[in-house]
Design brief:
Layout lengths: L5 E7 L4 E4 L9 E8 L6 E7 L3 H7 L5 E8 L4 E17 L4 E8 L2 H6 L1 E6 L3 E2 H11 L3 E4 L7 E2 L3 E6 H10 L3 E6 L2 E6 L6 E6 L5 E11 L8 H8 L7 E10 L9 E5 L4 E14 L5 E8 L8
Parallel strand pairs: 10-14, 15-18
Antiparallel strand pairs: 1-2, 1-5, 3-4, 3-19, 4-7, 5-6, 6-7, 8-12, 9-11, 13-14, 16-17, 17-20, 18-19, 19-20
């Protein structure tokens, strides 16, 4: 029974507070809901910590404090870093039985909000050089997914404004997309993956219930381009759709949007890209699960 003993750690490293149930400590009751996807919108989390002392609560009731959430199982990997974000809002409610402090967190929120840049590059500068410079200004490390490469900017490149807007401008013209995952800037191909971790979800390896079929259309209008305008005039433009599956598993904290995973069930067997993931947990309740939206646009190999 490797999935029975839950462990968590919540850390506020900038101010030196950590809460945990590791090493046979009961720890405070916590609850979390974490939502991650591949869009440029910052990933969000709601974290609840029960019955903090007055002194500790006052120290944590401040905006922009960095918070790290770790969770997992003692007999597998132990608690794994699952979310990193800054506090957007802190709210405390006294129910009479418990005092619950709720933290609303945004992954990379301050980097997106506060980074204003002025950059200029000479002709024939590689696109990844520009991306790395933007990431440095946003104080973010950067990782590139499989096959995510850039050509050179023949006429050079210059930009003044918000760093996130510069990222969108560079990525749009290069066939890649960016997102921030656990405080790291992630660059992947539009229909590509970050990496294949070799993870398989099956009846005996974390899969809960049966996969559910999902069909999604693009909720936002596609960016206007001369090619798209011509296609619409010729009535050849079509709304973008994605076909895939939704699965529920035991908590899988290491999985990120953009990863490739394999599902083995009576309904489906194959490799899919993680488009979105929701982690939910209650350290003293029933919930300790992950839900994945999987897209089947590509076929992935085992390596």
């Amino acid at each position: 029974m490797q999935y029975w003993k839950r462990q968590y750690k919540v850390s506020f490293p900038g101010i030196g507070y950590t809460f945990s149930n590791i090493d046979n400590r009961n720890g405070l009751k916590i609850e979390f809901d974490i939502d991650k996807d591949l869009t440029k919108e910052t990933n969000k989390s709601v974290l609840k910590i029960y019955n903090l002392s007055n002194e500790t609560r006052k120290a944590l009731e401040k905006p922009d404090i960095l918070c790290e959430i770790y969770a997992g199982y003692e007999k597998t990997t132990g608690p794994v870093k699952m979310f990193v974000g800054n506090t957007v809002q802190v709210h405390t409610k006294n129910s009479g039985k418990d005092v619950v402090t709720e933290f609303r967190l945004a992954d990379g929120g301050t980097a997106v909000r506060d980074c204003e840049i002025s950059l200029s590059f000479p002709p024939n500068t590689p696109g990844n050089t520009i991306i790395n410079a933007i990431a440095s200004n946003m104080r973010l490390a950067v990782v590139y997914g499989q096959g995510a490469t850039f050509g050179t900017f023949t006429n050079g490149y210059s930009f003044i404004g918000n760093g996130a807007e510069a990222l969108s401008e560079i990525c749009y013209g290069s066939g890649v997309k960016w997102s921030i995952q656990n405080g790291i800037l992630q660059i992947i191909l539009e229909e590509g993956i970050l990496q294949n971790r070799g993870v398989v979800f099956a009846k005996d390896s974390g899969l809960i219930g049966s996969p559910e079929r999902i069909i999604k259309s693009n909720p936002k209008p596609d960016k206007e381009t001369p090619k798209r305008k011509r296609k619409r005039k010729e009535k050849k433009d079509r709304a973008e759709k994605q076909a895939g599956w939704k699965i529920k598993t035991l908590l899988s904290p290491s999985m990120l949007p953009g990863d490739a995973i394999k599902v083995e069930s009576e309904i489906i067997t194959g490799w899919f890209r993680v488009e979105a993931v929701k982690h939910s947990g209650d350290s003293m309740g029933n919930d300790w699960t992950s839900e994945f939206d999987l897209i089947e646009r590509l076929t992935y190999a085992n390596g």
